[in-house]
């Protein structure tokens, strides 16, 4: 089976971005490479049980509010289709 890569853009808050930069400098790798490795490890360790995923999502500050904004934007047709990206 062929492994397919997917590009994902992630925005970090200033504190996390600074910490990532310090870690990358310490281990002499690019920030993006380290971020990819850390995210892959976190995904590998994540419990796919839906109850745990819901708890994880609930723990993200502002996630519900941002999701509601996205829904409102979609209702007003202020979104870009995936095929247009």
Give an overview of the whole structure:
The structure is a single chain. By secondary structure, the chain is mainly α. About 60% of the residues lie in helices and about 0% in strands. It has 4 helices and no strands. It has helices at about 15-25, 30-45, 50-60, 65-75. α1 (about 15-25) packs across α2. The longest helix is centred in the middle third of the chain and has 15 residues, at about 30-45. The protein is extended and about 45 Å long. The protein starts with 13 loop residues before the first helix and ends in a 10-residue tail after the last helix. The mean pLDDT is about 85.
Please, how many helices?
Answer: 4
Q: How are helices and strands ordered from N to C?
A: HHHH
Biggest sheet record:
none
The low-pLDDT segments are none
Judged by helices, strands and strand pairing, the structural class is mainly alpha
What is the end-to-end distance? 27 Å
Q: Report Rg.
A: 16 Å
Q: Averaged pLDDT, please?
A: 85
Total strands: the figure is: 0
| Share in β-strands | under 5%
**Percent of residues in helical segments?**
55-70%
Described by the principal axes of the CA atoms, the overall outline is extended
Question: How would you summarize this macromolecular structure in one to three sentences?
Answer:
The protein has 85 residues and is an all-alpha fold. Helices cover 60% and strands 0% of the residues. It contains four helices and no strands.
């Amino acid at each position: 089976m062929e492994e397919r890569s997917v590009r994902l853009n992630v925005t970090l808050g200033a504190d996390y971005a600074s910490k990532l930069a310090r870690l990358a400098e310490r281990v002499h790798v690019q920030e993006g490479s380290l971020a990819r490795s850390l995210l892959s490890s976190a995904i590998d360790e994540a419990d796919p049980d839906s109850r745990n995923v819901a708890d994880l999502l609930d723990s993200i500050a502002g996630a519900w509010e941002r999701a509601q904004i996205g829904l409102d934007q979609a209702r007003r047709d202020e979104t870009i289709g995936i095929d247009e990206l």
